[in-house]
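Hi V.,

Quick status before I head out on leave. The structure for the redesign project is tokenized and pasted below; the design run finished overnight.
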């Protein structure tokens, strides 16, 4: 898979990129650690997570190949990670240090435009996440999440879906049962579809 933002770099600029292979489950950055690089996922899946007082995992963001992280922190007044950055799968990530990124942005218009595109996409995804989490009830969160995904979602496990919605597994299981009884959703294995009442 070609990563468009990396393909915008010149031969000389590519020398400034540091590629790392990261094992599944490895913490790349810890919550509170300074962000000094722009990360581009080339392969695998990265998640930014935190943990509640009860020990529940809160997934802030999932970053897939072609997507980026650190861009929203790099130039902020408080450039520290708000969660742990963890490899959910065996992953390859390309990093560009802040100083090198500034140089590239000043001299490479094609890269600048792609960077701004990634920044806009990141903001949209963050707004979607806020929209989900602004709903306190489990039913509302699930229905909003369904709506954002074309009223049809496939998930690996109920636990993973619960993490995505920042709910406990038990709360989500009860929620799914209630919504099925109301004929608002239909669950078949690892798939949930919103139905007409």
């Amino acid at each position: 898979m070609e990563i468009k933002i990396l393909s915008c770099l010149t031969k000389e600029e590519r020398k400034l990129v540091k590629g790392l292979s990261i094992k599944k489950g490895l913490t790349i950055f810890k919550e509170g650690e300074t962000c000094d690089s722009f990360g581009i996922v080339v392969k695998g899946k990265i998640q930014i997570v935190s943990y509640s007082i009860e020990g529940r995992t809160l997934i802030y963001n999932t970053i897939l190949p072609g997507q980026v992280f650190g861009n929203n922190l790099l130039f902020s007044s408080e450039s520290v990670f708000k969660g742990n950055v963890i490899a959910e799968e065996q992953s390859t990530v390309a990093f560009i240090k802040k100083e090198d990124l500034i140089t590239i942005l000043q001299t490479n218009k094609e890269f600048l435009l792609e960077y701004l595109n990634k920044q806009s996409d990141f903001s949209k995804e963050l707004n979607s996440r806020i929209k989900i989490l602004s709903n306190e009830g489990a039913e509302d969160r699930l229905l909003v999440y369904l709506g954002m995904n074309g009223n049809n979602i496939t998930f690996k496990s109920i636990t993973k879906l619960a993490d995505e919605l920042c709910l406990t597994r038990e709360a989500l299981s009860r929620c799914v049962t209630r919504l099925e009884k109301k004929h608002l959703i239909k669950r078949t294995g690892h798939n949930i579809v919103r139905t007409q009442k």
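Above is the designed sequence. The CA atoms of residues 28 and 171 lie 30 Å apart.

G. will cover questions while I'm gone.

Best,
W.
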